Amino acid sequence: MRKRLLLPGAGTGASVNLLRSLRTGDPALFVVGCHHDRFVLKTSSADKRYLTPRSSHPWFTTALRRIIEREAIDLLIPVSDADVQVFSRLQRKIPCRLFLPRRPVIELCQDKYALSVRLHSRGIPVPLTYPVSDMAQIPQLFRRLPAGPGVWCRMRTGFGAVGASLVKDPKEARNWIKEWEARQGVPATTFVLSEYLPGRDFACQSLWKDGRLVLVKTSERLSYYLPTNLPSVVSSVARLAKTVVAPEVVQVCTDAIRALDKKATGIFSADLKENAAGVPCITEINAGRFSSGTNLHDLTGKHNMAVTYVRLALGESVGIREEYDGTEDYYMLRGFDTSPEVFHAEEFFEGVEELWS
């Protein structure tokens, strides 16, 4: 029987990339998309598309149920942190399957400071992090953090390094936070100051079922996709990334997820960066959704993670014996107004003539 899926946020980058992975792995899948913005929705290549109210609208749940019942949807797959949060609250009202971590785990992971406190208490390497309770304490927090080129100032919630910047001294930190307060209405208590991590930048995406690790893959970010007016020096959105075999990264991530929930279920997308000693430290975990660059993990290696997720969610056997599906030298390049492209290192030399003089 043809499996029928529902992707919210249809037409957004995250939804488009996930749809590409699903169709590559299983062309027989029937995918329905929905979005509250008809212009974004129009760009989706889903088999059917529905315009819905925003998730904050009182009619949203009714509209969602109508789509699921009319299209006989088997599985709803969130594509953003907001989706995960909303659907975790509505699970009992949604007449199809969801494959989400437990709600307390989702809420903990969506607060980066609370997550770092929990992981640190369990012996998992994380950057030293302090919350900003008021502007007057910022100089004191700087003195408690390791010396370096600066400290990482960021929000406790959000993605893509929005609101994040490397600040070199307390004055710069205060000015940065005041700017967000004045222009965006973001209070100072939303921010944290963290130890700057100078090393390699990794992503680790893993699938779990009832506490059992089913599949895990790793990649490294080499450069970042950033608008020129964003002062952050790094981002979770890579312009260029490559697959890597990094068992030490897998160990940190799996230890972290087991520390959060001994019966972990669903997908967990973790970001890590090496500290000065070369130890990979967890900087955030997105519980319940795929990373926006999931194509690099889905279209390389032995197993397509997106399709494996669907099969696990629907109670099917996936037959994976080795959980770590590590591969080397596959690259993904992303650019403005272009689809992410995945190549093996050898392909970069095909059909290219070099002229250096």
Protein architecture, described:
The protein is an alpha+beta fold. It folds into three domains: 4-98, 3-Layer(aba) Sandwich (Rossmann fold), CATH 3.40.50.20; 129-194, 2-Layer Sandwich (Dna Ligase, domain 1), CATH 3.30.1490; 201-349, D-amino Acid Aminotransferase, Chain A, domain 1, CATH 3.30.470.20. It has eleven helices and 15 strands. It has helices spanning 13-25, 38-42, 60-70, 81-89, 103-109, 112-121, 138-144, 170-184, 247-260, 295-298, 305-313, and strands at residues 4-8, 30-35, 48-51, 75-76, 129-131, 151-155, 165-167, 191-194, 201-209, 212-224, 238-243, 266-274, 280-287, 330-333, 341-344. Strands 13-12-9-10-11-14-15 form a seven-stranded antiparallel beta sheet, with helices on both faces. It has a four-stranded parallel beta sheet with strand order 3-2-1-4. A hairpin with a 7-residue loop joins strand 14 (330-333) and strand 15 (341-344). It is globular, with a radius of gyration of 21 Å.
Task: Give the key terms.
single chain; 357 residues; Rossmann fold; 7-stranded antiparallel sheet; 4-stranded parallel sheet; 15 strands; globular
CATH-wise, what's the superfamily of the largest domain?
A: ATP-grasp fold, B domain
Strand runs, count: 15
Gross geometry: globular
CATH topology category name of the largest domain: D-amino Acid Aminotransferase, Chain A, domain 1
Beta-strand proportion: 15-25%
Biggest sheet descriptor: 7 strands, antiparallel
Return the domain count: 3
Strand arrangement, major sheet: 13-12-9-10-11-14-15
On the 0 to 100 scale, the average pLDDT is 92
Number of helices: 11
The multimeric state of the shown protein is: single chain
**In whole angstroms, how far apart are the ends?**
60 Å
Low-confidence stretches: none
